[in-house]
Amino acid sequence: MEKKTLVVKLGTSILTGGTRRIDRAHMVELVRQLAQLHREGHHVVVVTSGAIAAGRELLGHPALAPTMPNKQMLAAVGQSHLIQIWQRLFDIYQLHVGQMLLTRADLEDRERYLNARDTLNALLSHRIIPVINENDAVATTEIKVGDNDNLSARAAILADADLLILLTDQQGLFTADPRSNPDARLIEEVHEITDELRALAGDSVSGLGTGGMATKLQAADVATRSGIEVVIASGKTPELIGRLAHGERIGTRFTAQANPLESRKSWILAGPPPHGELVVDDGAARAVQSKGSSLLPKGISQVCGTFERGDVVRVLSSQGKELARGICRYNATDLQRIAGKHSDEIESCLGYGYGPVAIHRDDLVLLKGDTQ
Ligand SMILES: Nc1ncnc2c1ncn2[C@@H]1O[C@H](COP(=O)(O)OP(=O)(O)O)[C@@H](O)[C@H]1O
Ligand SMILES: N[C@@H](CCC(=O)OP(=O)(O)O)C(=O)O
């Protein structure tokens, strides 16, 4: 069976079961399902809400004004508690978790984005379960993603996920909020997120979650545009996670709009103008062009311009013809020092390393014909 990468977002509504406490009994059941998928060889990423709810529970539900610092204080208390609960539950299956607390600023800055992606990939390749939440304690309104639905869509892009599952307290997106409209019907499949659809998605009324269905639709929009399928479903459906991973139709499914690799490549071409140039030797030019290889420092003969790790650069042949564009994993100063060297010399030369390649093949777009 094909191995998939799944991002599963668990909202406060499902983690508390609508109560004032974290529903550990239900978390045990969700972890059992996640561990089963992991055992089958799939990559599993958890995006967890519930820090604020856990903080409230731990402090005995103090009467607090709903100010930002108070929420941040609750999240700071609750997050460490929450991650301990996750770790204890995954311990049952001898699995480790790795906590990643992110903000919007981390995901918009190319260098920090690459760092976060490298960390996530390192966790996954060591078969550790990444457990992600927003870094509420440091995030102010400007740098906050604001809700974990949107955060999970960005985490899914970071992980190159095949499927994003948004687990909540409803069976999916309905034609109206089922809490107030008993006649509301489940929408089973969405191919395009239109304004009419957005008008159906209401806010959270439970006082526990953030954003309701509106933020779930925003998340579905972001993820499906990046080629990731999204499902909104009820966390109470038996064996839900495994059944969805095996292709069963449950809840509301949003079909992917593009292939993830293609969408990253169009960002490279349409995104910010290149910051610098790498002139490569004939061997590297051939490897990149005909074999679809990554660009190694060894094949770089000249580094021009000032660029940071994560910036887009142009790749030029020794005759000055533009062959490709890609996201560079080293900044210009570092690359000048390692250009022409073997990848296993990077660490000793710089004192650190971000891996053996200057531009990974997934971050490289070949240009056909003259693009000078
Ligand atoms: N059209 C809709 N279909 C389903 N649920 C809706 C809709 N509009 C609003 N909602 C509300 O969204 C809530 C789920 O969002 P939220 O409370 O933020 O949960 P979570 O903590 O899982 O993110 C549901 O409990 C429901 O009341
Ligand atoms: N980061 C916050 C959750 C924010 C949020 O979006 O909550 P939810 O709508 O329940 O997914 C916390 O951990 O409490």
TrEMBL record:
<dbReference type="InterPro" id="IPR015947">
    <property type="entry name" value="PUA-like_sf"/>
</dbReference>
<dbReference type="InterPro" id="IPR001057">
    <property type="entry name" value="Glu/AcGlu_kinase"/>
</dbReference>
<feature type="domain" description="PUA">
    <location>
        <begin position="276"/>
        <end position="359"/>
    </location>
</feature>
<dbReference type="InterPro" id="IPR005715">
    <property type="entry name" value="Glu_5kinase/COase_Synthase"/>
</dbReference>
<feature type="binding site">
    <location>
        <begin position="210"/>
        <end position="216"/>
    </location>
    <ligand>
        <name>ATP</name>
    </ligand>
</feature>
<protein>
    <recommendedName>
        <fullName>Glutamate 5-kinase</fullName>
        <ecNumber>2.7.2.11</ecNumber>
    </recommendedName>
</protein>
<keyword id="KW-0418">Kinase</keyword>
<dbReference type="InterPro" id="IPR036393">
    <property type="entry name" value="AceGlu_kinase-like_sf"/>
</dbReference>
<feature type="binding site">
    <location>
        <position position="49"/>
    </location>
    <ligand>
        <name>substrate</name>
    </ligand>
</feature>
<keyword id="KW-0547">Nucleotide-binding</keyword>
<comment type="function">
    <text>Catalyzes the transfer of a phosphate group to glutamate to form L-glutamate 5-phosphate.</text>
</comment>
<dbReference type="GO" id="GO:0004349">
    <property type="term" value="F:glutamate 5-kinase activity"/>
</dbReference>
<keyword id="KW-0963">Cytoplasm</keyword>
<comment type="pathway">
    <text>Amino-acid biosynthesis; L-proline biosynthesis; L-glutamate 5-semialdehyde from L-glutamate: step 1/2.</text>
</comment>
<dbReference type="InterPro" id="IPR011529">
    <property type="entry name" value="Glu_5kinase"/>
</dbReference>
<feature type="binding site">
    <location>
        <position position="136"/>
    </location>
    <ligand>
        <name>substrate</name>
    </ligand>
</feature>
<keyword id="KW-0028">Amino-acid biosynthesis</keyword>
<dbReference type="InterPro" id="IPR041739">
    <property type="entry name" value="G5K_ProB"/>
</dbReference>
<keyword id="KW-0808">Transferase</keyword>
<feature type="binding site">
    <location>
        <begin position="168"/>
        <end position="169"/>
    </location>
    <ligand>
        <name>ATP</name>
    </ligand>
</feature>
<dbReference type="InterPro" id="IPR002478">
    <property type="entry name" value="PUA"/>
</dbReference>
<dbReference type="InterPro" id="IPR001048">
    <property type="entry name" value="Asp/Glu/Uridylate_kinase"/>
</dbReference>
<feature type="binding site">
    <location>
        <position position="148"/>
    </location>
    <ligand>
        <name>substrate</name>
    </ligand>
</feature>
<comment type="similarity">
    <text>Belongs to the glutamate 5-kinase family.</text>
</comment>
<dbReference type="Pfam" id="PF00696">
    <property type="entry name" value="AA_kinase"/>
</dbReference>
<dbReference type="InterPro" id="IPR036974">
    <property type="entry name" value="PUA_sf"/>
</dbReference>
<keyword id="KW-0641">Proline biosynthesis</keyword>
<keyword id="KW-0067">ATP-binding</keyword>
<dbReference type="Pfam" id="PF01472">
    <property type="entry name" value="PUA"/>
</dbReference>
<dbReference type="InterPro" id="IPR019797">
    <property type="entry name" value="Glutamate_5-kinase_CS"/>
</dbReference>
<feature type="binding site">
    <location>
        <position position="9"/>
    </location>
    <ligand>
        <name>ATP</name>
    </ligand>
</feature>
